[in-house]
Structure formats: C-alpha cells, structure tokens
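Lab notes, practical 5.
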Amino acid sequence: MNIYQIIIGTEILNGRREDRHFPFLRDLLLQRGYRLKSSSIVEDDPELLERLFRLVKADPEGVLFSFGGIGATPDDYTRSVAAKVFGDGKLYEEREAKELIVAQFGERAYPHRVEMAKLPKGAQLLHNPVNRVPGFSLEGRYFFLPGFPEMAHPMVLEALDRYLPSTPPPPRYTICVEASENDLMEIMRRLPQEGIEFSSLPVIREGSYRDVISIAGKEARKWMEFFIEEVEKRGFRYREGEEC
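Output from the prediction step:
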C-alpha cells in the first residue's frame, strides 16, 4: 500500500497559515502500522491538482488523503478535479450531504453552501463533527477532506477505522556506528534493494563522524546481523539504538 498526502492551499505556501496535516497523518499512520510514501503542499491550481491525482490513480497500490479545496468558493477545485480523475467528470447532488448542510445552516445553506453537496459519482460521506459539512471518499481508498484540521482530522480517523484497519508495524533494528557514511558504503551496497526499508542518518559529534543505521521489514533482523558482522570485521565500534 502506497499512501499519498496532498495538502492544498496557497495560504500555506505564502505563509498566511501553518500546515498541521502532515505531522498528524504521518504520526497516526505510523501508530497504525503504515507510513506515507509521499506528501505534497500545493497551491490552488486545478491543472497541478489533476496531475497529482492522476499520479496516485496510476499507482495500483495508491491511497490518497487530500486536504482542502472541497468548499464552494471559486478557488475550491478539489471536488470537480476528483470527479474528472476518479469519476465520470460530473458532480451529482448527494442527498444525505445536502440534508446535513441544510440541517446545519437552514436558509443560509442557499444558494452557495448546498453546492458542497455536489460530489463525484459513488462518493461515500465522511462526517464532520464541527459544522456537519461532510468530506467524502471514493472507492474506499481516495479520501477528500476539508482544509481545517478540526474538521479534517476526525474524518481521517473515520476513514482509517472504516477502510484501513491497524496492522502491526514491521520490526525495526537500529545501531549507531562510530564511522562515516563513506566508511560504511560497501556494506550498504550489499543490502537488498527490495524487501527491507533501509536508512542511513549521519551525525557529527565533537568533530567525529557517526552513522545511525536503521533496517525495517520482515527480514530486518537477518540483515542487521549481517551489517553488524561487517562492521565488526572493519573494527568500527557500535551500539544499539539511535543515541549517538
């Protein structure tokens, strides 16, 4: 499963607002045994948005969390672009969504707020605890949420509970080696390119090079043992954990 995050908002890029979606989704996914493949913050540009949506759609393992742009103002493009990429290009009035909006706003729902009830074909609602204007999902893998964290983050929890049950995280092993990345490059190149998640994080402490090596996956223990054996052959000191 490849999980993509797209955060839409020119106001984030120009500094008028701070993003809170990336750390929230990242940490929540990690707690549930998943992780992000990609995260992007983009301006309110329908052509750019369409290209990004198509990139996710082209990935047979792609899952999308899209934040922002599902309102009814002229710069809200997400609903129409989602219909174009993931649907038949049309928006349809969703009965329950309209009822929720009218129940919340009464006559003030017209003429603009009810436009937010027009969704791509087959949309399933995600419920909004703040003002009842829903987000929505398509195919149980593409999720479209408001830009406001107070509204969006409960919807993320709903989407995960409904469509992505928690899974145990893969085992991870970490060591800190008293050596530079360059010293360890030959060992790194002997690790498999697939089947494990590998990272090398260099650290400099008081002028000395150190490297935090982390390996995760079903065979993480096997490959960490291999790494340690090769480190010992070269005479480098190491200790388990990320503390350097």
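Observations recorded by the TA: The mean pLDDT is 95. The helical segments are 10-13, 21-31, 46-57, 78-86, 95-105, 149-163, 181-189, 220-233.
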